[in-house]
Amino acid sequence: MCGIVAYIGEKDATPVIVSGLRKLEYRGYDSAGIAVLQNGKIEIRRVAGKIEKLEKLVDENPTKGNIGIGHTRWATHGAPNEQNAHPHVGMAGRIVIVHNGIVENYLSLREELIAEGVEFKSETDTETIAHLIEGFYSESQDLYTAVQSALKLIKGAHGLVVMSTEEPDRLIAARLGNAGGVALGIGDGEMYLASDVPAIVEYTRRLIFLESGQVAIITKDGYSVNDLDGNPIQTEVVNVPWDPISVEKGRYRHFMQKEIHEQVRSLSDTMSGRVDFEEHRIHLKTLNLDEEKAKSIKKIFITACGTAAYAGMVGKYLIENIARIPVEVMVASEFRYCDPIIEPGTAVLAISQSGETADTLAAMEEARGKGALLLSIVNAIGSQAMRIANGFISMQVGPEIGVASTKAFTAPLLDLYMMAIYLADLRGTLSVEKRIDLVKDLLTVPGLVEKALKKEDAIKAIAAKYKSMKGALYLGRGVNMPIAYEGALKLKEISYKHAEGYPAGEMKHGPIALVDKDLPVVVIATRDAWYEKMISQIEQAKARNGHVLAVATEGDELIQNLADEVFWVPETPWLLSPVVNVIPLQLFAYHIAAQLGLDVDQPRNLAKSVTVE
Ligand code: F6R
User: Fold this and answer.
1) Cβ of 493 less than 6 Å from ligand 1
2) How many CA atoms lie within 13 A of 425 on its CB side?
3) Active site residue 608
4) Most buried of 139, 181, 338, 471, CB within 10 angstroms?
5) Distance 152 CA to ligand 1 centre (A)
């Protein structure tokens, strides 16, 4: 879950690496460090805390060299202090490493190394790799083979970059399993390395993504990639279309706020190239489906984590309603352990912003092993979840930096809606009239989201009134039930307030006992098939002195009179209403956390890509 950046070329490596780490701070932000080869010596600067502290340190005590590696950490083994911050050096000081992942057998390796006389300076598992590589290096005098040998001993999933004083013209990078990506960025007489594209997209868009079991030798003029046994591997250069501006905050105070507002554009972008406006058809070529394959699908499992799983729950309604294919949604961390029944005709659809979430990738592997047709909806281009699927939909929303996911929640909602239309069309189960109506509805969404965003000031004022609340209950029904979950998740992860999402109809079976004057109840009560039921929900909460905050359709006087506060949204076709209804809940959570002065973009204990299981 940590971030890695490295550079080799003619430039001063320090500013390139530190600015890259800044862009990856969302990956982990408890400590950071950099190592640069300066006049043949490894110069290390490390801090506990955020990248700005590292920036200060390198200003006060500069490092200068044309090759270096850097790291921003999300602690797994050892407290987040300076000693445990990466890079870590081997005992003889000739090898230095940055690492993402967990060495599962590090305790036994550590004991063996200690028995051989190695002195550990940190509590990290990573330091074992540094010592192992250095041990092998003294035998082979070749950094590449030393890394290769060490990788064969360590268990778990890893991404790492290694540098040595003895070979100042190269870096060695490797990926084992799903501990996060390792991308090589090709420059002109220089090479960049990063765990995630935003770190280096400012310099190059020509990238190679290492697969599991690949080791790369990188010099300033090029690279070669081999498998663990040293066999050369042909790699594909991917051109990444991201715009570097999108990894800057612009006029917004936080990335999260910027990304909430970006949704008008990101929702149009996710449709781009996929909607035939004349025929009112959807084309999703990268799904690699034809009529025969589409007709063979009898069941779809959707698997994902957190926010992405909530998008999947909405997807169940969309696919079942439009394409009439049964859908089961299961969080990825459970998928593998329930021995899922995958029969011929079962498709497994994974949804992931990062495309590197360890649980989601493990679920995909389980599905592949059982012979499922493997599909994915992914944002990060070139990520593992995109590469290992038989077919994918790219969200096309650009990098999402705020740790709390917003635009990468709404884009897959549209992708799922489009996928449902596409599947139904291929299977021949959708009438032309219905297809035209569904596509016309789809095209209205960015405009409706724009209208919902215009209410930000009113939402900010409501947030000011409720920012001291202890917690909240979020209720929704039908296609908007997952929006209650998502609204609650947004609030808890950035404001640290307890919030619970609940299917509204389940209230009376227990949670209603919680309702009193101190517990705000957020109710999604827009005009849809469940509207009347939601009104009675509001009545029930009011009867118990609850404070009701309702997401309601503009002009709804009944709700205006019943609820204490109203988040107004424009009238939206019901299948697409989750996309619009989540907007005020994102803004509400954002403004509460911002007004409390909390670290909105980097909430405590979290990291953007969760590459540990
Ligand atoms: C919440 C959030 C997380 C992610 C989850 C999956 O705001 O961001 O719940 O949705 O960790 O991440 P991805 O989509 O990268 O697989």
Assistant:
1) yes
2) 21
3) yes
4) 181
5) 31
